[in-house]
Structure formats: structure tokens, C-alpha cells
Amino acid sequence: MMQLTINSAVAMQRLGASLATSALPHDLLLLNGDLGAGKTTMTQGLGRALGIRRPVKSPTFTLVREYREGKMPLFHMDFYRLESADLASIDLTAYLNEPGLVVIEWPQVIQAALPTDYLELQLTRIDDAWDSTKRLVSFKAHGDRAAAWQVTALKQFNQPEA
Ligand SMILES: Nc1ncnc2c1ncn2[C@@H]1O[C@H](COP(=O)(O)OP(=O)(O)OP(=O)(O)O)[C@@H](O)[C@H]1O
Ligand SMILES: [Mg+2]
Questions:
Q1: Hey, whose CA ends up nearest to atom 26 of ligand 1?
Q2: Mapping DSSP to helix (H, G, I), strand (E, B) and coil, where does residue 128 land?
Q3: Residue 38 in contact with residue 119, Cβ under 8 Å?
Q4: In this predicted model, what pLDDT tens digit does every residue of 109-153 receive, in sequence order?
Q5: Which of 61, 86, 85, 84 is nearest to 76 (CA)?
Q6: DSSP class of residue 55?
Q7: Which of 40, 79, 88 is closest to 61 using CA atoms?
Q8: CATH classification of 2-156, choosing from 3.40.50.300, 3.20.20.70, 3.40.50.620, 3.20.20.10?
Q9: pLDDT per position as a tens digit, 22-51
Q10: What burial letters (b/e) apply to 103-139, b meaning 16+ CB within 10 Å?
């Protein structure tokens, strides 16, 4: 498993941007981590790199926000408030069939409905100070496409000029 230390919200957005520029249509990104870990912050950097101008906002109350104005559609989901009984209300397969990028915060509830290939990140605070901006990001690629995506994104993140 690959791990990365991120020192600021801006760096987290840059990591999101690296994931966006190396993403292909139908890619799926799962973001695990506690409240305030930085999942939405990462997605904001991702959205901006796709050319989405309006701010990416947390979809906590809407379950899904759709952004179709960028280089490829972004479907940003947050299942924090989703009960497993309400799972039928979201057609994940339909979103994955669109030539866009699906990002899911709090994905545990849909774990059983996932495709075979996806990139899973875990964002963790690694400093006790309440206002610390340090985070550990752990990468777990499920499948060949996710593994290739991870390699490209990390290369891009580590050598932004290349
Ligand atoms: N290194 C960092 N990465 C990301 N966010 C950071 C970092 N350091 C500080 N922050 C701040 O922490 C907060 C993270 O909030 P964010 O909404 O991104 O978390 P989240 O993981 O989406 O939480 P939730 O589970 O409630 O949706 C933001 O205010 C952000 O500016
Ligand atoms: Mg969030």
C-alpha cells in the first residue's frame, strides 16, 4: 500500500488535481476518512482541474452533485446520511456507465454494490493538534485500471512539471 503525507489543504487539492488529470471516463474514486479529514477538499481540487468553475460543495444532504461542464462529468457523492434501506434511491451503475468520474465520500454503505475496479483512498489526521493540517493519504488500488491510475496520479503529483 502506498502512503503519502499531505501538509496542507492546498496540497490536498493539488493531489485531487493530479487524480483528475490522470482520470479516464468511468473511473471510480472512494474517499474514506473521518469528518473533516479532507475528502471534500480533495474533490474541490479535482473539480477545478477538470475545469469546473463553480465551487464543488459537499453533497451531504443531496447524496449526489452532478457537474457536467468540465472536461468530463464529475459525479460527487456523499453517503454519510444514507441508510442501507435507501440504497435503491441511488443508481450507482447508471452513473458509472456515463463517461465521467465518480467520487464517493463515506462509501461503506454501498460496498456490496461496487464494481471490481476502483481506487480507494483513506485520509487520516496524523497530528493531535485540533488545527493540524497534516494528513496521511493511503492508496489502495482494486484492479488493473485503478493501479495504473494511481501510478500516473502519483507521478504527476510528485513531478508537477513533467
Ligand atoms: N491537509 C488538509 N487536507 C484537507 N483539508 C484540510 C487539510 N488541512 C486542513 N484542512 C481543512 O480541514 C477541513 C476539511 O474539510 P472537508 O469538508 O474537506 O472534510 P471531509 O473529509 O469532506 O468531511 P465530511 O466527512 O464532513 O464530509 C477543511 O476546512 C480544510 O480546509
Ligand atoms: Mg465531505
A1: 35
A2: coil
A3: no
A4: 998 889 999 999 999 999 989 899 999 999 999 999 999 999 999
A5: 61
A6: P
A7: 79
A8: 3.40.50.300
A9: 999 999 999 999 999 999 999 999 999 999
A10: bbbbbebbeeebeebbbbbbbebeeeeeeeeebbbeb
Per-residue DSSP letter, 56: P
Residues 109 and 82 sit within 8 Å (Cβ to Cβ): yes
* Helix, strand counts (H, E) of the chain: 4, 7
User: How far apart are the CA of 59 and the centre of ligand 1, in A?
Assistant: 14
What pLDDT score does 116 carry?
A: 94
Which amino acid makes up residue 63? L
Lookup result for grid cell 487524480: 19
| N residues, the chain | 162
Q: Which atom of ligand 1 is nearest to the CA of 7?
A: 1
The one-letter code for the residue type at 106 is: W
Residue ranges of the alpha helices (H) in the chain? 9-21, 39-49, 92-97, 144-158
* Gap from CA of 155 to ligand 1 centroid (Å): 24
Asked whether 120 and 99 are in contact (CB, 8 A), the reply is no
Distance of CA 61 to the CA centre of its chain: 18
